[in-house]
Amino acid sequence: MATAMDWLPWSLLLFSLMYETSTFYVPGVAPINFHQNDPVEIKAVKLTSSRTQLPYEYYSLPFCQPSKITYKAENLGEVLRGDRIVNTPFQVLMNSEKKCEVLCSQSNKPVTLTVEQSRLVAERITEDYYVHLIADNLPVATRLELYSNRDSDDKKKEKDVQFEHGYRLGFTDVNKIYLHNHLSFILYYHREDMEEDQEHTYRVVRFEVIPQSIRLEDLKTDEKSSCTLPEGTNSSPQEIDPTKENQLYFTYSVHWEESDIKWASRWDTYLTMSDVQIHWFSIINSVVVVFFLSGILSMIIIRTLRKDIANYNKEDDIEDTMEESGWKLVHGDVFRPPQYPMILSSLLGSGIQLFCMILIVIFVAMLGMLSPSSRGALMTTACFLFMFMGVFGGFSAGRLYRTLKGHRWKKGAFCTATLYPGVVFGICFVLNCFIWGKHSSGAVPFPTMVALLCMWFGISLPLVYLGYYFGFRKQPYDNPVRTNQIPRQIPEQRWYMNRFVGILMAGILPFGAMFIELFFIFSAIWENQFYYLFGFLFLVFIILVVSCSQISIVMVYFQLCAEDYRWWWRNFLVSGGSAFYVLVYAIFYFVNKLDIVEFIPSLLYFGYTALMVLSFWLLTGTIGFYAAYMFVRKIYAAVKID
Fold first, then answer.
1. What is the C-alpha to C-alpha distance for residues 639 and 632, in angstroms, rounded to an integer?
2. pLDDT range class, residue 184, cuts 50, 70, 90
3. Lowest mean pLDDT among 7-11, 237-241, 632-636
4. How many Cα atoms are found within 13 Å in the side-chain-facing hemisphere of 14?
5. Residue 183, H or E segment
6. What angle, rounded to 10 degrees, do the helices at 461-473 and 409-437 form?
7. Which whole number is the average pLDDT over 279-304?
8. Nearby residues of 315 by Cβ (< 8 Å), 6 or more positions away
9. Rounded Cα gap, residues 114 and 62, in angstroms
10. Is the distance from CB of 175 to CB of 207 less than 8 angstroms?
11. What is the DSSP string of 580-630?
12. Beta-strand relationship, 170-173 and 176-179
């Protein structure tokens, strides 16, 4: 009986946990229940354009302002993305319709834009700017209806509905500029199932807008700030003349519709893609090709190695073996420390730091904990993880530096903690100065920059030192053969052993595994799309690791067979060869997909691309280097050395 009584509290605890789990939500994204006529706050995020790549605050343009402007406290990721979430004067009540209402109209007078304001609005419209609003953390979208069936004889053409993030600020037609000054909000709610005596609650599940341009003369207003929209197509759009003052009304209407979509699935609309099948097919194709090539490479290398080791270990044909050229002949030099061991170990330490950070971020995002609804969470997590992974980067760099006969561990630790982050910070600071000059919200504020520096020198640097100290104290990697005192002469190498040719050859397979995914990542970064395919990305990352490792092993095997033992730096550079193809693809994407013509947007694109390419080279170079190092130690441990 006592045993049963002992188990009872644990059973109750387990039951309560099971009950709680059914109502568990990721922090920050729990649903908000609204009652009839509860206020639903509409907030503005920013203005964006894929042509300029410079986000701006909502109130950088002369929109109507509420009596008190309140900015939301933002996380690090939101600040770095250029989000400046602020309240707006739109009055929206749950399940309450509004035909037409005028914003910021004093005594029924229209808003007057000065010449300077008119010029700024006209400039933003010609630069294809989009306005981004949110309601209950759900971004506004513009519905696009495309006809998928092009057969003119078929009267029942199928509509393919897609959604555009945000809404266009305005449009141009025959050298005239028009502003979208009327917004028709369409909000969808899901009615929650309640007991009979309880009041119904609603949840917002979709937020659409139909932007319209309506001329001042066509809008009829009254003293209660209500207005009447013109019927049919009789109205003319509201033109903005940048050379003079313009008068106009800012108006909006609200329409509510009930929806079957549940709160948990409300983001599906925004993440719908028109080419899911193509994406699936491309990924499967990449997987099959890479694994097929990897299998062939593995088979060839294993069979060749077995043959080599068997020949080298034969005792009866010693004379033939001695005359034979091959990787065994460089056994006395293969582990000779390279030039600049401190820089090599520092770069590889940063590569390990990046590898751990990317692996954890992709895995956590794949579990759905860094979804687009958690605004800025992905970038915040990545920044903090990179800082905390400094302990692993420092440990691996310290141990390798000790193995390469290094002695100045304090200088090595400082180099590991500052070399790669210093380059990143330097490039970002220079780019940030240009963004500041444009008064864009994409510029990182000075306090945030100081906070990032404090994180770097207060978290990352001490952790790198800590890891480096323990890594340097640990026993160095055990190399199976001794290094000769006199370096062996290296024979003249064939043309295909050239470093640049090696980079070109080694980069093809890893790049082929991931270039499909690269298109979606570039679209998310440069064209303001949502990226959410982290399951695909995790699979691609695993394939990338496998392909980089195998290519690196093949390249180091060929190099040692050519009796060139200077493999340390060469293997690190060649293994990151796919970064060269990423750079080429980025240039192709810039020329073919983006409509960027100005200097500063181009500078931003290539500045951030340079950071991506550098980081990708460090990542793939580190993966390849450690695979090659393990391979070299294994094969020299398998042969008998006199």
1. 11
2. very high
3. 7-11
4. 5
5. strand 182-191
6. 160
7. 75
8. none
9. 10
10. no
11. HHHHHHHHHHHHHT----SHHHHHHHHHHHHHHHHHHHHHHHHHHHHHHHH
12. antiparallel
Residues 70-119: tens digit of each pLDDT = 888 888 888 888 888 899 999 899 888 888 888 876 666 888 889 999 99
Backbone angles phi, psi at 77, to 5 degrees: -60, -40
Q: In this structure, are strands 220-221 and 86-87 parallel, antiparallel, or unpaired?
A: unpaired
- For residue 204, which amino acid is it? V
Q: How many CB atoms lie within 10 A of CB 70?
A: 9
* Alpha-carbon span 559 to 566, nearest angstrom: 9
Among 350, 331, 335, 337, which residue's Cα sits nearest to residue 407?
337
Least confident of 67-71, 72-76, 313-317, 586-590: 313-317
Contacts of residue 177, Cβ cutoff 8 Å, sequence gap at least 6 = 122, 125, 126, 170, 239, 240, 241, 242
| CB 205, CB 190: distance < 8 Å | yes
Opening angle at CA 399, ends 393 and 400, nearest 5: 90
pLDDT in tens, 117-127: 999 999 999 99
Contact 206, 259 (CB under 8 A): yes
Q: Give yes or no for residue 345 having a pLDDT over 90.
A: yes
How close are the terminal C-alpha atoms of the chain, in Å?
Answer: 73
Query: Does an H or E element contain 99, and which?
Result: strand 98-103
H/E/C letters for each residue in 258-312?
Answer: ECCCCHHHCCCCCCCCCCHHHHHHHHHHHHHHHHHHHHHHHHHHHHHHHHHHHHH
Rg of the chain (C-alpha set):
31
| Confidence (pLDDT) at 263 | 83
Residues of the chain with pLDDT > 90, as a percent, come to: 31
SS3 state at 161: strand
> So where are the chain's domains?
38-270, 277-306+502-641, 339-478
- CA neighbor of 181 nearest in space, from 140, 240, 230: 240
Candidate from 4-8, 329-333, 428-432, 499-503 with smallest mean pLDDT = 4-8
d(CA 112, CA 629): 70
3-state DSSP assignment of residue 186: strand
The two structure tokens encoding residue 88? 């707006």
Q: How far is Cα 168 from Cα 49, in angstroms, rounded to an integer? A: 10
Residue with tokens 């009447």: 228
| Listed residue (486, 506, 508, 487) closest to 496, CA to CA | 506
